[in-house]
Write a structure and sequence with these properties.
Keywords: Signal. By secondary structure, the protein is mainly α. The chain is 77% helix and 0% strand.
């Protein structure tokens, strides 16, 4: 085999390995960032509304909501979700995440 061809092949293999490692790091960082954002959102709700009467009244409804995978939506839960979204409009959490945060209070 030609030495130039061998050297070219080795260089391509090194570049391909670096590209794969970089791609893995970027993908991992994106996944970890998304999980951290969700965790931050639920912990913000948990700490901010620990003494809020509207949110605390929704704990049973939130448990029913989570247990039924979203099929049962009680009046207290609806009021709490509206209250939370009005109080913290920048919150990026879905109803299930908020219900789980309410349960954890």
């Amino acid at each position: 085999m030609n030495p130039l061809r061998t050297l070219s092949f080795a260089a391509l293999m090194v570049l391909a390995a670096n590209a794969s490692a970089t791609s893995f790091v970027v993908t991992t960082d994106a996944i970890v960032g998304a999980v951290a954002a969700t965790t931050d959102a639920t912990s913000d709700v948990s700490s901010s509304f620990k003494d809020d009467k509207v949110v605390l009244a929704a704990r049973d409804d939130a448990a029913s909501f989570v247990a039924s995978q979203g099929a049962i939506r009680g009046v207290h839960l609806e009021a709490a979700l509206d209250h939370i979204r009005t109080t913290v409009p920048s919150l990026q959490a879905n109803d299930m995440q908020l219900a789980q945060a309410i349960i954890s209070l």
